[in-house]
Amino acid sequence: MKHIDEYRDGNLARSIAAVIAQEAATDRQYRFMEFCGGHTHAISRYGIEDLLPNNVQMVHGPGCPVCVLPIGRIDDAIRLAMRPEVILCTYADLMRVPASAGRTLLKARAAGADIRMVYSTLDAISIAEAEPGREVVFFAIGFETTTPPTARAIRLARRKNLANFSIFCNHVLTPPAIRAILDTPDLEGAGRVRVDGFVGPAHVSTVIGTVPYTGLAETYRKPVVVAGFEPLDMMQAILMLVRQINQGRHEVENQYIRAVTAQGNLIAQREMAEIFALRSSFEWRGLGELPLSALRLRDDYADLDAERRFLIETVPAADNPACECGEILRGIKKPAQCKLFGTLCSPDTPMGSCMVSPEGACAAHWSYGRFRDSAKAGAERALV
Amino acid sequence: MCLAIPIRVEALLADDMARVTLGGVSKSVSIALIENVRLGDYVLIHVGFALTRLDPDEAERTLALMHEAAVPGLPARA
Amino acid sequence: MRHGRIDLSHGAGGRATAQLIDEIFRPAFDNPYLDQANDQAAFDVPAGRMVMSTDAYVISPLFFPGGDIGSLAVHGTINDIAMSGGRPLHLAASYIIEEGFPLIELQRIANSMGRASRAASVAVITGDTKVVERGKGDGVFISTTGIGIVPPGIALSGDRARPGDRIILSGCIGDHGVAIMSLRNNLGFDTELLSDSAALHGLVAEMVHAAGTSLRLMRDPTRGGLAATLNEIAQQSGLGMVLEERAIPVRGEVAAACELLGLDPLTVANEGKLVAVVAPEEADHLLRVMQAHPLGREAALIGTIIADDQFFVQITTSFGGSRIVDWLAGEQLPRIC
Fold first, then answer.
1. Is A65 close to B35, i.e. CB distance below 8 A?
2. How confident is the model at residue A319, as a pLDDT?
3. C106 and C226 share one domain
4. By residue range, what is the domain housing residue B53?
5. How many structural domains does chain C have?
6. A160 touches chain B (CB under 8 A)
7. Do C256 and B22 touch (CB under 8 A)?
8. Which pLDDT band, with edges at 50, 70 and 90, does B75 fall under?
9. C interface toward B at CB cutoff 8 Å?
10. ipTM of this predicted complex?
11. What's the CA gap between C265 and C248, in Å, rounded?
C-alpha cells in the first residue's frame, strides 16, 4: 500500500533507533507525551518502545475522544435511543462503552432501541432521507478531524430541508486539552505533569495546521513535533524532539509535511466556524470541566441540535473512586500503577476512560503491552 | 484517534464525491472539504471524507530525511 | 415453485413437508440413504475411534461472495471433524426456515449444500425441516452434525503442545470476514475478494499421513480469527507462543480493507484455514507437504511454542518491536479512532 508500507520499514526503524540512542544524553530522562490516541495505539501495536533507549519514554495523553466522553453523555444517548421514534446513528467505537449502571449502546440495541452503526455522517443523512417518519439523531464525537464531517452533514440537512435530522454534539478541541495537561493545578498533591515535549496529533493537524501549537510551545517552553501516523513517522518525530531538547529549543516542528501545512485545511476550518460555537465549559472524563474546550451548534442551527430538540439535560456521573485515569491521562501515572488495572478493570469490564477505547493508555497497554509487566516482575523476582 | 488512510482517487463523481481505491478495495467518499482534486491524487480519508491531499514531493522528502537521519554521524538539523 | 414461499404447512410433517423434501432436499443431496426416505440412516462403521461434531449456522447475509449458508455448513462441520485428524464420514442437516422464505432461495441453498458435500465426498444422509412463524427466524438457520473416524494412534488435542513445537498456518487470513463485511451497507466498500470457505479434510489427510504423532493439534480459526484460536490453544496447553508478524500471510485486499476499517487481520474470521502445531523436527517436512496441496499453497511457519506461565501469545512486529496478540471479548467493531 503506497504511502503506508514505506513508513513501516523495520530496518530503517532500527537505524533511526540507533541514532536516537546515540543522541539521547545518558545523564537525563526524556519524557514525551503523544497527545493523540492513534499515536498511542501505533506505539503499542508496533512495539515502538522496544526500539527506544531506556531514558526516552513515551507518556500517553488524552487525545482519544471516546475516552474523554463523559458517562453522562452516553446515558443521554441511550435515553434518546430508547425513544421509539428515534434512530440513533453512531460510530462503532461507542457501542461497547459502559455508561451508568453498566448500560451500553450495544445492550440498548439488544433491548430494542434502534441504534445503527455508521461509517460516515453521510450515512446518517441517507437514513434520515429514507425514513421521513422517524427522528434520526447522529451521535457526534471527535476532535477537529471528525468535526468538519459533522459540519458537512448539517449543511446537507439544511440544503435538503430535512425535518427529521439532528446532531448530538460532543466535539472537543485539541489545544485546550494540551493546555489543561500543562496547566494541571497542584490540587490534592496531584503534581505537575513531567513532560518534556509533545508529539502533536497527525490528522487533527491536517485540519487545524501547526500554527495553533506555537502559543503553547512558547508559553510553556516545550517543543511540539507534529508527527504522521506510521511508526517511522513517530521514530523521526521522537528524534526531532530529542534534538530540540538537546539544543535547548522549544519550537513547533512539522514531521508530517506530506499531509500537514502551517495553515491547515481552510475550507474545513471555515465550515466548523460557520456551524459551531464554543461552549463556555465542558466536562472531559478524567480531566474535569475545561473552559472553552468543546463545541455546540450555533443558534442558527438550533433546530438541528438534538440537545435543544429533545431538551436533553445531562446528569454527570462519576467514575469509580479508585480509578486513576485522571493521573494517567496527565502522564503522572502508568496503567500498571492503577490498583484496578487487570483486576476490576480490563477491556471487557472498563472502569474508566483509559480502558474504554482501544486507544486509551490502559487498553493499549492491556492489549499489547502487559506481558512486559510480568517480565519486569519476573526479572525483579529473579534479582531477589 | 482519527484513523485516516492515504488512498488513491480513481474517479470523480457527482455531488462532491469521489471513488477511491486502496489495494483493490474501493469506496465512495466526499471531497467537499478539499479543492482541485485530480484523478491519481492521493488523499487522506477519515469517516468517509477526504481531509487533505497528500503531497507526493513532500512524501519523497520525508523518506529521504528518514534515510539520512538513519545514518549516524550526519550533522543534526537545526 | 418459482414464486412460492415457505409456509407453516411445510414444517407440519404432512404432505407439504414430504413434497418439500422430494422436490428440494432429496434431489439436492442425491444419495441412496435419503432415497430410502426414513427418519434415520443406518450405516456400517469402520473400525476405529469415532469423532462427532455439531454446529449451527446463523450467518447473515445468506449469500456472499464465494459461498452461502449451505456450503458454509458443509465445510464448517467437515472441518471440525477434520481438526481431530479424523476422516469425515457422514453429515446430518437440520433446517429451520422462516415462514415466507422464498422457495427459490431455499433451492439455491440446498443445491449449494449438495454440491459442496459431493465435492467433499461426504454425504448428507439424514435431516430434518421445521418452519417457524414469520419474524421468528432470520430466513434460514442450518444445524449440521458430522461423524468421522480417527486413524489409530492419532490423538490430537488442544492441550498437547510442548515448548519448542512449531506453529504452521495453512494460508492467508481474513478473507472470509472481509468478504462478508463488504456486503454490509453501512461499511460501503467494494472488493472482488471471495470467502475462503473450503473443506480441509483432504489437506488434513495428507498432513496426518506425513507427520503422524509429531502432529500435536490442529484447529480452524473461524470467528475471532487467528488471535482467538492461538489464545485458546495457549490456555489449553498452559504455554505461551512467539509469532513472527512478517511470516503471517495476508492478501493485499484484506490488509487494505482492515486499514480502512481499523481492524486487525488477526481477529478477522476464516472458513478455509487451519493452524497446526507440530514437533520441531517434522516442521519443515510438514510445511512442504501442505504447500503441495491446493488448499495449502500459501502455508507458512508462523511461530514457536514457549514455556510461559501467563500463556501470552507474543508477536514480533514487522517493525521489530514486540507486543501481545490479545483475544477479543466480542466481535471486533470497525473504528474511527
1. no
2. 83
3. no
4. 5-69
5. 2
6. no
7. yes
8. low
9. 182, 188-193, 252-253, 255-257, 259-260, 262, 335-337
10. 0.90
11. 10
